[in-house]
Backbone:
């Protein structure tokens, strides 16, 4: 949409540029956040099944919910700020038709709006922007429930019931926050020939219990003490703690080495997609800076929004690659 001050006035032009920047940046930010969430899902699934193979069952924290994640809230903020731009666009394009609308005669008013293609434009906006955005947000919201996406324990009984029941009797239970805190503190693995078995044995000694009831009671007692720190963290980045364990260069067993290689290939693909995000944001910033230089001052509002999104994407990229880079530096 053209946000020319001559067409829509100075103040409306600034608001138009502000909302237009959100329209452009929302898909790019959504891509960056989606990559973070996809990475988290891979790590959580990997750590869950690896622990289960070694008779350990982890309970993921319920605090890792979309409604409590600042990144998800930020996406909702961007989506909400993009919405007024389309209203402004439709109103300015069909200003004369709206002046003919009479609230007391809805049938006649609807015919006039249809004749002016107002409803057609609104339908186009809904189909090509809002419906895909809403579907994306719903899928992203559902992806935060890690345990809902895991394989039910009943599946382990299908092939060999007796062996699975015997294995489950040996299972010990752990809480995610306890395991994450222990991993972030650093595991005391000895020598270069350590394996994932050694790492999980240390975790079990530090954080595992034989009784789920004790685990739940301990969780309630410690929740108040940790709530402040939990709320201060970004949920998406905090729940990437399994990378520090699974990518630990001191682990030399075959499965861990293979996972590290696959993980690096996965990061390479994500890195290319993040470069696309930065390229699109950079091109738009350069264009808007050129517009401001030529005298289109309302574009400053869009530049501020785009710089904010660029900074957020850079922070997410840093958090995404930091775990792997730190682990490689330990070699």
Residues:
């Amino acid at each position: 949409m053209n946000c020319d001050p001559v067409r829509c006035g100075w103040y409306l032009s600034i608001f138009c540029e502000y909302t237009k920047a959100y329209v452009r940046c929302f898909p790019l930010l959504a891509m960056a956040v989606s990559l973070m969430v996809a990475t988290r899902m891979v790590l959580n699934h990997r750590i869950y099944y690896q622990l289960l193979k070694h008779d350990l069952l982890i309970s993921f924290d319920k605090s890792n919910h979309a409604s409590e994640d600042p990144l998800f809230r930020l996406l909702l903020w961007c989506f909400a700020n993009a919405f007024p731009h389309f209203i402004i666009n439709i109103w300015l394009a069909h200003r004369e038709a709206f002046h003919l609308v009479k609230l007391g005669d809805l049938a006649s008013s609807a015919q006039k709006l249809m004749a002016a293609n107002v409803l057609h434009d609104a339908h186009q906006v809904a189909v090509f922007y809002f419906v895909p955005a809403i579907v994306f947000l719903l899928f992203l919201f559902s992806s935060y429930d890690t345990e809902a996406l895991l394989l039910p324990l009943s599946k382990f009984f299908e092939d060999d019931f007796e062996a699975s029941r015997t294995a489950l009797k040996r299972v010990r239970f752990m809480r995610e926050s306890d395991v994450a805190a222990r991993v972030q503190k650093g595991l005391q693995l000895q020598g270069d020939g350590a394996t994932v078995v050694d790492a999980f044995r240390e975790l079990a000694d530090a954080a595992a219990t034989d009784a789920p009831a004790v685990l739940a009671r301990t969780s309630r007692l410690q929740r108040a003490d940790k709530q402040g720190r939990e709320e201060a963290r970004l949920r998406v980045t905090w729940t990437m703690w399994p990378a520090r364990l699974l990518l630990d260069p001191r682990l030399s067993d075959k499965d861990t080495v293979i996972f590290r290689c696959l993980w690096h290939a996965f990061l390479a693909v994500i890195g290319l997609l993040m470069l696309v995000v930065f390229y699109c944001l950079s091109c738009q910033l350069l264009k808007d800076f050129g517009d401001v230089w030529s005298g289109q001052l309302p574009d400053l509002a869009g530049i501020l929004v785009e710089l904010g999104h660029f900074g957020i994407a850079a922070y997410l990229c840093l958090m995404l690659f930091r775990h792997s880079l730190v682990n490689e530096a330990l070699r």
